[in-house]
Every structure is written in C-alpha cells, then in structure tokens.
Amino acid sequence: MGSSVFSKVFAWKEEAVRLGREMIDLSIGTPDRPPAPEIRRALSAAALREDAYGYPGTRGSIAFRQQAAAWMAHRFGASVDAELELLPLMGSQDGLAHLAQALCDPGDLALVPDPGYPIYAGALRLAGVTPHLLPLRRENGFLPDLSAVPDEVWSRARFILVGFPGNPIGARADESDFAQLLALARKWNVLIVHDLAYSELGFDGYRPMSILALPGAKEQAIELHSCSKSFNMPGCRVGFAAGNAAAIGALHELKGHIDFGVFEPVQEAAIEAFRLAMAAPSGDRGVAPLYERRRDVFCAALAAEGWHVDKPAATMFIWAELPERFLRGGRAGSASVFAGELLLATGVAVVPGEAFGVEGEGFVRIALVREEDTLREAARRIGRFIRGEIAEV
Fold first, then answer.
1. pLDDT at residue 236 above 60?
2. Phi, psi dihedrals of residue 259, rounded to the nearest 5°
C-alpha cells in the first residue's frame, strides 16, 4: 500500500505522550467543528425511524442523488443525471480506493500526482496498475506539467487523477488549466478523475471549480465530492462520484459486490447539508472563512518565529518547506527527522512530506484543525524548536 509514514507518526505521538508532552495534533485533516445543528437534527430524526435500518443499497436513495445533483448545478453550474451519472460513496476515499479496480486491468497505466494523497498510488497497487507520477513542483505553481508527459504514456493511460485544489497541496487551477487537461484527455481517450474533496475551501476570492461545468466534460471525466471537509461530517462517511456514465456504472457494479451503500440516516444528513448550502445567502462561503482566518493567523505566527511558509490558495493544509537550518544542517533535508524530533520535543504533530510521495521530501504538511489560539501556541513551540531553544530528543 505504500508509505508507512502515518504509522510512524502515530508511534511518535504515543512516545510524546509517554514523555509528558502536551499534544497539539496538526497531522490529520479532520475538522474540529461539528456539523450545523440542522444537519445533526436531520441525522437524529432519521436514525429514530424504525424503517431506517435495512440495507440501503449501493445506488443510494433517489432523494440523495437528486439533491446532490441539484447542489452540483447550484454550486458549479454543472448538470449531472441523478439516475446514470451520480453514485453515493462512503466518503470520496471509497471511490478513490476502488476506481482503478473498476476501470482497469492488471498491467494498465494511470497518471497520478506526486505528492498526492496516499490512496492514489495505494489503489493502483491493489489493482495491479502501473503509476506514472506527475511531479508537483513550486516552479510550476505545484500544478502538473502535462506537456512533459510522453506520448507513449498518454497512449497507454486509462485515466489521469488530479485534484484542484488537492491534498497535501492547495494549488489553484483556473478554467484554462482544466481546458488544457480536457483537450489532452480527449486526444488520447483518457478518463479524467478529479478529486474535489476540498471544493468549499478556497481563499482570497478563489472558489474551486468543477471540471464538469465545462462543455462536454462529462464524456471524459468523473469527479469525486465529499461532505467531510465541506460540511464538517468526516465521521459520517458520505460523498459521491459524478460524471461519465460508463465510469460511474463500472464503479457501481464493483461496489455492488463489496458493500450495501451509505446508511440511510447519513444520506438524510447529507441531503440537509446540500439544502442548507443552497439556501445560504448569495456570497456565503461556508467553512472557507474559518480556514482562511486560521491560515492567516498561523502563517503570520510562524513568520514571527522565523519560519516563512507559502500561504495555500485553498484546503485546510499548509505545505511547508523545512526551515533553512534543517535543509542544510547535516540532515539532508529529512522531513521525517524534522517531524519526529519536533513532535517529541514540543508535542506538535505534523506529517512528513514523503508520506505523499518522493516529491514531498523536504516538506511537511500541517493541518489547520485547531482554534486560532492553539495555532499561535503551536507556532511558538515550533519557533523555539527551530531556533534550538528546546532540546531535541
């Protein structure tokens, strides 16, 4: 399945607790706020119904699919058929984990970003699919250089997976980037898989767009959405895939052999989340302002401590290059060494960049999942550590 870095971070956390460190866990991207009261009430009411405990079915309720399709039209101007072009998922990771098995045969090839969310490459390994890595580097705005992909790779590829914005990097893409990708995918008959789990976390006036809003994109693309980050519902495990009917059908066919769908009360909660978002006043940005304020507070606090990091255009993560001392101090830029020693010395947990691929070396991912005062305290501890004022363990 790939990187074992997350299990190492878990072991470091246990050791830090044993050493008596007060933990500030910025390693996992789980929202620290609850869903809106209306969403919780919808979940509670549905869970009390006596008829809510049968097998829900992989296709989900028609009410869920119609509301999700209506939200797509409202939010992005994208039209999807609730019957044929939309499938509920147990979170977007459910779709990402199973898609290669649904679409590919062993020995096929797929293009995936590096760094990228670990299930991207892990799912290919499970399916016996060969990855072609797309490096995401600062000089290209952390967007893939599609012109550098050889024709031979395009000719073999079954699909290309992208995330604008993505995890761990909240890079910004505009309509021209999507248009270039769509043109290449059409030329080579490659399916586009767009992971849009962070669609509602755009900053500074940026609102991430759906590739399905482009004319004809449904013929060439599917998109994965999640309620986890957008509506503070990570434990509910609900999202959906939308787009190309044949790909959605293949995923449905595979999942029909694996699970019985999303618990109906959870679907009811998601329906309410979509309804609330659609009923919000014009200009409402949902959860985005919360994370934008946290981003600004934390980046300013780190800068005051001597660590200047790039501000992301979106998502709940900071993708931070290691402080200069740790890039040159005989450590060969080891993000794993930095993250391990930081956690054991200060109790602040971050994830080494190599968890997301070889291009992640020299970076750490920091999740903005604590209140502003706690983020300021984390920055103070990090500052003392990078200046050598806290003894390294």
1. yes
2. -145, 175
Cα Rg, the chain, nearest whole Å: 21
- Whether residue 168 has a cis bond before it, omega within 30° of 0: yes
The pLDDT value recorded for residue 193 is 98
SS (H, E, C) 9-77: HHHHHHHHHHCCCCCEECCCCCCCCCCCHHHHHHHHHHHCCHHHCCCCCCCCCHHHHHHHHHHHHHHHC
Position 43 pLDDT exceeds 70: yes
Mapped onto helix, strand or coil, the DSSP state of residue 268 is helix
CA dihedral 273, 278, 280, 281 (to 10 degrees): 170
Strand 317-321 to strand 363-367: parallel, antiparallel, or no bridges (unpaired)?
antiparallel
The per-residue pLDDT of the chain, averaged, comes to: 94
pTM flag (> 0.85): yes
336: its two tokens: 């794993």
Q: What residue spans of 214-263 are helical by DSSP H?
A: 227-230, 245-255
Task: Tell which residue, 112, 16, 1, has the closest CA to residue 350.
Answer: 16
The pLDDT value given to residue 1: 65
DSSP labels, 70-138: HHHHHHH-----TTTSEEEESSHHHHHHHHHHHH--TT-EEEEEES--HHHHHHHHHHTPEEEEEE--G
Pick 307 or 333 by higher pLDDT.
307
Give, rounded to a whole angstrom, the gap between the first and last alpha carbons of the chain.
30
Helix (H) / strand (E) containing 389: none
Confidence band of 332 (pLDDT split at 50, 70, 90): very low
